[in-house]
């Protein structure tokens, strides 16, 4: 497979795009873990979510 005179540019572009996608996936995984941990801490401290209440419970 020959990419011609622009082979280095093409390969570098694909590598940069792949790196950005990997970084975004890693960031999302870390954020999910952080949000899950924070929700567990709030649940343990007794703070409940508003979406967990029924329509009749809201004042």
UniProtKB/TrEMBL annotation:
Topology of the protein relative to the lipid bilayer: Single-pass membrane protein
Q: Which UniProt keyword terms apply here?
A: Cell inner membrane, Cell membrane, Cytochrome c-type biogenesis, Membrane, Transmembrane, Transmembrane helix, Transport
Single GO BP term: cytochrome complex assembly
Tell me if Cell inner membrane is a UniProt keyword of this record.
yes
Q: What is its main location?
A: membrane
GO CC annotation, single:
plasma membrane
Function, as annotated, reads: Required for the export of heme to the periplasm for the biogenesis of c-type cytochromes.
Listed name of the protein:
Heme exporter protein D
Lineage summary: Bacteria, Pseudomonadati, Pseudomonadota, Alphaproteobacteria, Hyphomicrobiales
